[in-house]
Amino acid sequence: MAKQTASEKSYQSLVNAHDRKRPVLINCIKAFLVGGCICIIGQAVTVFYITFFSFTEQTAGNPSVATMIFFAMFLTGFGVYDRLGQFAGAGSAVPVTGFGNAVISAAIEHKTEGFVLGVGGNMFKLAGSVIIFGVFAAFVLATIKTLLSYFGVVN
Fold first, then answer.
1. At 1, is the pLDDT very low, low, confident or very high (cuts 50, 70, 90)?
2. Residue with the larger pLDDT of the pair 128 and 143
3. In the chain, where are the structural domains located?
4. Can you tell me whether residue 58 is helix, strand or coil?
5. Predicted pLDDT of residue 84
6. Residues 6+ apart with CB under 8 A from 105
7. Confidence class for position 94, pLDDT limits 50, 70, 90
8. What is the DSSP string of 85-146?
9. How far is CA 124 from the centre of its chain?
10. In 3D, which of 144, 72, 133 has the Cα closest to residue 103?
């Protein structure tokens, strides 16, 4: 590391004096609790589909994920999820609900540009890459499994 000049040292000490100390432990606890609550709600949604719609544990996954994405998008539209994100940080970025929040946030941000070019075009900036990666990964894994089952390695 290069030696710092006197002005760089004084600048660094000024930055350190005004730097806000972050409560890391409190932030981790908030993220853990909020993320856990989101997961509990997701589990409750899954149990709801199993109980009232006769889904199996495996088949209840897709409607549960869609419901959680809808909840996140709905709450984002009313500004609730953004406040939750300010409070919980990464705890609100549980993959499914964080994805729904990111998609809708981009759409809301660009709504002044119109529905097609603004909302539609910008909504899929994030979602498009996630969907493409998911489809490609599923294709690769299905191809590998098919080849392995063809050669009798896997049933």
1. low
2. 143
3. 24-109
4. coil
5. 93
6. 76, 82
7. confident
8. HHHHGGGGG-HHHHHHHHHHHHHHHTGGG-IIIIIIHHHHHHHHHHHHHHHHHHHHHHHHHH
9. 15
10. 72
Residue 43: pLDDT above 60?
A: yes
Reported residue count of the chain is 155
User: In angstroms, rounded to a whole number, what is the distance separating the alpha carbons of residues 48 and 61?
Assistant: 11
3-state secondary structure of 152: coil
Q: Which residues contact 45 (CB under 8 A, 6 or more apart)?
A: 64, 67, 68
Report the C-alpha gap between 30 and 114 in whole angstroms.
Answer: 37
pTM score, whole prediction: 0.72
Measure the CA dihedral 108/112/118/119, to 10°.
30
The three-state secondary structure class of 2 is coil
Tokens of 47: 């149990």
User: Which among 91, 109, 83, 6 has a CA at the least distance from the CA of 41?
Assistant: 91
- What's the distance, Cα to Cα, between the start and end of the chain in Å? 56
pLDDT of 111 reads 85
Count Cα atoms within 13 angstroms, Cβ side, for 85.
16
Distance, in Å, from the CA atom of 22 to the CA atom of 87, rounded to the nearest integer, reads 13
